[in-house]
Amino acid sequence: VPVVAVVVAAGSGSRLGAAVPKSLVPLGGVPLVRRAVDALVAGGAQAIVVTVPAERAADVEDALNGVAAPVRCVPGGATRQESVRIGLSELGAADDAIVLVHDAARALIPPDVVSAVAAAVLTSGEAVVPVLPVVDSIREVGEQSSRVVDRGRLRSVQTPQGARMWQLRAAHDRIAADGVEVTDDAAACEYVGIPVTLVAGHRDAMKITEPVDLILAEALLAHRTA
Ligand code: CTP
Ligand code: MG
Known about the structure:
One of its GO terms (molecular function) is 2-C-methyl-D-erythritol 4-phosphate cytidylyltransferase activity. By secondary structure, the protein is α/β, with parallel strands linked by helices. It has helices at 32-42, 57-63, 80-90, 111-124, 165-178, 185-191, 211-225; strands at 3-8, 26-27, 30-31, 47-52, 71-75, 98-103, 127-133, 138-141, 146-149, 155-157, 161-164, 196-200.
């Protein structure tokens, strides 16, 4: 079964506040989008569509020069959800292909997690999400009061998220038609009744969102190559 991927990299990175779009920000000298795409290829992705900021398309294409699998860049949409939908429509893959959707901002995704997600799509027939336990104590806040939430029942969600191509296309078409907003691709699948299987995520798959995350990612990278 072919494994293909959409890497969403079209965001501006307003919270990171760098001089360039987040996907072009260097981590250990290599742009985030390049690290993410290389990791997906290492984890088994055979063809990749990358959604890019329209005004920086040429720079992203440069950054992806020489990737060991076919890569195509397309301008993204106004939201992540729109970017995913555009990316899916640009993937010429068969309906039964396994498709992975990944945030370029999760640049240090271990290839083992990528291949584990793809394998779980194959064995479960469901949408697949990598997750981590929640380490903080959590309180739910109401109008007048707050209460503790049992964090043992909570998981934080990462990418790549996977499904069969027909499942993800159907999900994104339906949520677009219904004008619904979802936070991620597994939630899109759930919206059309596709169950979700969880697999183990990894600390390194953290999303680089704020400046402190880039500092942490540089440290994780240094530790990895040490
Ligand atoms: N993304 C995208 N198209 C959008 C918005 C986001 O492809 N219209 C991508 C981003 O490039 C990123 C991923 O979705 O790889 C996760 O989004 P996020 O971390 O929120 O990135 P940004 O939207 O760029 O950052 P911010 O919200 O701080 O502006
Ligand atoms: Mg965003």
